[in-house]
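queue> pop job 88
queue> type: inverse folding (structure -> sequence)
queue> payload:
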């Protein structure tokens, strides 16, 4: 009887292993002596190498939301690394601190690039990743980061910004941008007004970049994050979740990535 039970248990284990769920693990890396704490997610049931995606966090820092998006990408067949742009996994719990942390990185292009490059190198060397097919997505502060990395000519196939600021002191130059770019913003976002969106489109057109800039009616800043309502109410800031815009932008981003990587549905 016991032998039959063990045989049954073994078969069940083998079956479950063949349909393994997304795996996630914490990773550490560094840039110029600063310890960086990331989180990598992948589906180990998928065989062979696949595209890698860097996920850059909101101004709150590397938190569970960034990890959630990494897992969502892994569910679609990618390997995703939620990066740490602040160092030591530092997080902000008040807008004043978030603004301070974000400004320290945003105002120092050399530092931002070094930390981004370190994450890029880490995911490129992952055994599940095709190092020739790397993209980056970012939210809020992270959206601005990935756009600026594209402007700097990082070797990315695609860059997607979700409610990230579109302004820059170093506009894209013709022939320098290697990535195709997508920006998703809300029409009711006071931090990214229509004039900024128009200027971004003009910048991309002038540089000859393959891009799309989508705005969603009724959507405010941080419209992809379900916690935005809580933040907005607690700190009296103009952020709010918008389920329709969240769903639409995610769907468009998945199509955008598939086109950039020349793949079909990445799910099994």
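queue> result:
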């Amino acid at each position: 009887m016991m032998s039959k039970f063990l045989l049954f248990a073994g078969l069940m284990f083998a079956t479950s292993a063949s349909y393994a769920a997304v795996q996630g693990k914490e990773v550490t890396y560094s840039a110029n002596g600063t310890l960086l704490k990331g989180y990598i997610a992948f589906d180990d049931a998928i065989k062979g190498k696949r595209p890698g995606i860097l996920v850059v966090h909101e101004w709150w820092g590397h938190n569970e939301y960034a990890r959630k998006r990494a897992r969502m990408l892994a569910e679609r067949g990618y390997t995703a690394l939620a990066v740490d742009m602040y160092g030591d996994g530092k997080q902000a719990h008040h807008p004043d601190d978030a603004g301070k942390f974000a400004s320290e990185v945003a105002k120092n292009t050399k530092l931002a690039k070094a930390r981004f490059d370190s994450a890029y190198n880490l995911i490129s060397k992952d055994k599940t990743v095709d190092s020739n097919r790397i993209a980056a997505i970012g939210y809020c502060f992270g959206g601005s980061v990935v756009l600026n990395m594209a402007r700097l000519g990082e070797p990315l196939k695609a860059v997607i910004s979700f409610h990230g600021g579109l302004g820059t002191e170093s506009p894209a130059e013709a022939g320098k941008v290697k990535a195709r770019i997508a920006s998703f913003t809300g029409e009711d976002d006071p931090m990214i007004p229509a004039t900024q969106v128009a200027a971004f489109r003009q910048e991309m057109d002038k540089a000859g970049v393959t891009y799309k800039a989508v705005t969603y009616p009724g959507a405010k800043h941080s419209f992809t994050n379900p916690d935005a309502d809580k933040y907005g109410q607690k700190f009296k800031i103009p952020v709010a979740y918008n389920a329709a815009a969240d769903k639409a932008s995610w769907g468009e981003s998945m199509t955008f990535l598939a086109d950039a990587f020349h793949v079909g549905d990445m799910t099994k």
